[in-house]
Structure formats: structure tokens, C-alpha cells
Amino acid sequence: MSNTATQQSFMQRNQFLIRRLHSLTGILPIGVFLIAHLVTNSSLAWGWFALKGRHQGEGMSVSEGGVQYFAHEVTWINTQVPHLFLIEVTLWLAIAFHCILGFYYATGGKGNLQHYKHQDNFRYSLQRWSGYFGIFFIFYHIATLRWGWTFLIPEGTAWSHEYSASTLAAALQGSTEGWTAAGLFVSLFYLLGVSLLVFHFANGLWTAAITWGLTVSEHAQKKWGYVCAALGAGLMLAAWSALGSAMLLDYDTARAVEASILDGHSAPAIDHNPAEHALSDEVTLEANASDPEG
Amino acid sequence: MGAAQASIIGSEERKANRKAAVAGRSVIFKIKRCDGPGKPWRWESFKVPTEPGSNVISSLNWIASNPVTVDGKETTPVVWDSNCLEEVCGACTMVINGRVRQSCSCLVDEYAPREGDEIVLEPMSKFPVIRDLWVDRSRMFDALQRVKAWVPIDGTYNLGAGPQESHDHQQMRYALSECMTCGCCLDACPQFAEEADPKNWDKNFIGPQAISQARLFNEHGTGKRLKDERMDTLMGPDGIQNCGNAQNCVKVCPKGIPLTESIAAIGRSATVHSVKKFFTSK
Q: Do B245 and A211 make contact, defined as CB atoms within 8 angstroms?
């Protein structure tokens, strides 16, 4: 009993600090990760154009080029990024902290949109609903595509790093042979989840500037609002193009591209500068870090 | 200060209603009634004849002298609070058709332009009801005490002339000083919870009204001597951090006080104060 009393008073005493940490974790690391994650995933849509710019990927279709680029990115993340497990655990902890406190804070308010129909008030309510839904979506997303809880995926196609694009397509479409009703449900769930989370981040970035006292005047808040809206629109485009590409992707085509990558090279298919091979591993790593394509 | 008032939803519609208002009509006032604290509430409707320029208070006056409901049932006169009748004291604040505002400045023509149109009156939702439309707003004055919303000048010797103030700064503070403690911002705030027990007032979000007044006195040349103490209160439990940025406060403020700017300014002071405290507190 007294234990819970001290616990409560600890939360009460440090309420300000904890709320500021809640605000901070939404941007760093979660928001920064979200940007990197969506940009990487959207390479399924723009990867072919990037390869084209480097005079690579001849004879490939747009979706094959996307798979080639995306698979390379995923391989790079899983083989070249140092301390990946530490980064992941940090992210999970930050998300858990942000979710639990966010849920607690959101249930403390009482929305009144039916009487005060203002745009800001609508965003206040949507920020909370997108948070509730987002917790659910992120859990499903990580459980199925990271922790391998295949019983939650229609037909149980396990996602793998080696076959990242094809298994993703199968998870979204419901089977390796094309669309199923369950797949449609999963895809719509993803579309809704990722859209709400992009909104949640963009709007959270806007309110964080008020919380920390960066945008004081109404005019500054408005201008920062445009910046956040533009960022949100860009991320939304990245999210939808990634999702759209994965939904349109043919499983067998993607599988063939991935197999050729795994076949021919232990490293991804995209040619590195031969001079780089002569350098030490560490230098190669740095070169890769600055530009994954070498 | 017109900008914020113009942003109140339906101002265009209200203007059109005023033009279209039918002379000599009667309108229905549906009123949420309660006989006292802890007593059950009920709806009662009254049919009230309109006059040119009649407002909610004049209609309540008419009901007080004719306390008969539309069903012909004799009832007690409706109780409400009012004072200045020109939207500067805040006493007659109530919820009209779902939105909080002052009833003295609420023209019947704008809300009920046709025969038999209905106006719904409710007491403010976040303050304890004393009777009918009359609420106890002392929680706001308690909040002003908590943030020490005053200038410390009491002492045993003459402090001399106060510091000089620039014109722009004075204009900024003037806008904040217009607060009449009416409670609109708190009633419309989704983060501000109803709480009847004074013992629990400091365990709930302090609200935009006190935050803005703290800023007013933080910005005062002599009043800023208490800034650290005010910031400690505002960064304490259920202080500034409980704001959810719904920004309803600034939209319902009848004085057009830039409440969200005050919240952001106090947020900035809180950022600075917490860093300062981290490195210098004993």
C-alpha cells in the first residue's frame, strides 16, 4: 500500500519531466526512425529510378528494380548497421514508454468535439485515437514482421530478411499466390495504421513546438504548422507508395530477383567500386554508411 | 481583439439570423435545472415572447416574472448569476446551445430567428452548480492564488518607482490583463476536469486562465520577482504539462486573449527554468 503511494508520488513529483520525455521520445528516436523506415520502404516504389540514374538494373521492370533496391537496403541494414540489436531495443523501449504514458495521458482528457468543432480540437481528438490505434498496429506489425508470430499472418508466410520484398507482399496480399480476403483486411489495416501514425507524428511535432516553447506567437504556430503539414504529406506519400508497391508486387517476380541476389553474390548484386574492395572492412563500412549504394 | 471573436463558429450564420429574425415571435427556452448541490437535475421549457434586441438575460427576467413551463405547470423562477450586463464581469457565463459564452451579450435574434425556435441553456459544465444556471467559480480564484497572480509591493519601506515599460510590451500585457475570470476557456478545455471538492483542485489541470495570468505577472517589472515561485507551481503536478493543445480556450475567450500564446510562452519559461534548476538548484 505504502509502496504504491510512493510510486504515485514519484510520478506526481516528476510529472513535468516525464511529460517532456514523452514529448521528446516521440521525436527522438521514434519520429526519426519513422522517417528512415518509410523512406527505406518507399524505395520499393522509387528504387528502379535510382538504379536507372546509376545506369544499373538494365532489363528490369519498375517493380523488379524496386525489389532489387529495397532488398539491398534491407541487407545493408541487417549486415552493416552496427549495434542493430541495441538500436532495436532502444526503439522498443522508447515506443513502450511513449505508448504507455500516452495512453495514460489520453484517458485523462475528455474530448468535446461535438460542441467545439474546431480544426485544432479535431486534431486533439485524432491525436488520441491515432495513438490508441497506433499501439495496436505497431504491435501487430512488429509481432508479425519482426518477431515472426506467423500465426497472426494469413497463411502464415514468415517474413525473412533474405526475401524481404516477396514475403512482405505475401503477408499483405494474404498468400503467395495473390490476393485473399484476409490479405485485403491486413492491407487495409496497414493503410489505416500507417496513415494515422504519420498524422500522429506530424501533429505531435507541431504540438511539441508549443510544449517546449519554440513557437510562441500564433503566427509562428501557423508557420510551423505548414512545415509539419508538408513533412506529414511527404511521409504520407512515402508510406502510401511503399504500401502500394508491396500490394501490387507479384510474389514470384520478387522471389526471382531476390534469389538472383542471393545466388550470385554473398553481398548484394549492386556493384561496388572495385577500389573499395581493396580497402579494409572498416573503411568499406564507412563508405557504405554514407551511401548504401557505394 | 475582434479576430478571435470572429472565429467563434457560426458568426456568419448568427449575422444572417439577426437579419432574418421575425418580429413579435415567441421562442422556447429549454433550461437545465437543479435545485441545489447534489440534487438531481431536470429539463424545463418556457415559451418567451421576444422584443427588439432581447437577449438571454432579458428572457430569463421574463421567465422570473412568469415561471410557467410550456406544459402550463407553475414552477420556481430560474436562478442565474449576472452583474455588469456588458460582457466585462464574466458572472453570467453559461452554456448556450452547447457552447460556453456570456448570456448578457447573447442576442435571441441570433440564436432563434423564427417562431418556436429553441435556445438551450445549461450551467457551465466544469464548475459546481449552486442552483439552476448559477455556478461556483471560486476554483479559478484558488488557481490565481496558487500561481501568485499579483505584484509583490507590500513591505515596510517605500520601494520607489517601478521599472519603465516599453509601449509594445505594455500592449502585450494589456491584452492579458483583460481576463475577467469568466471560465469560458476552462469549460471548453478537454483537459480541464470537473471537480467539486476544493481539496482536489490542485490535483487537476490548472487550466489556461491561471497560466495566462501567471504570464501577465511574470512579465510585470516588479511582478517578475515571484516568477520562480510561479514556475515551480506551473511545473508541479497538473501544471502546464497537462495542456493537450486542443486550442479551444483561445477560440471561446470572449476577450480574445491569446491564451495559446501564453501557454507556449510559459512552456518556454518552463524549459528555461527546468534547465536552470537542474544546474543551479541546491
A: yes
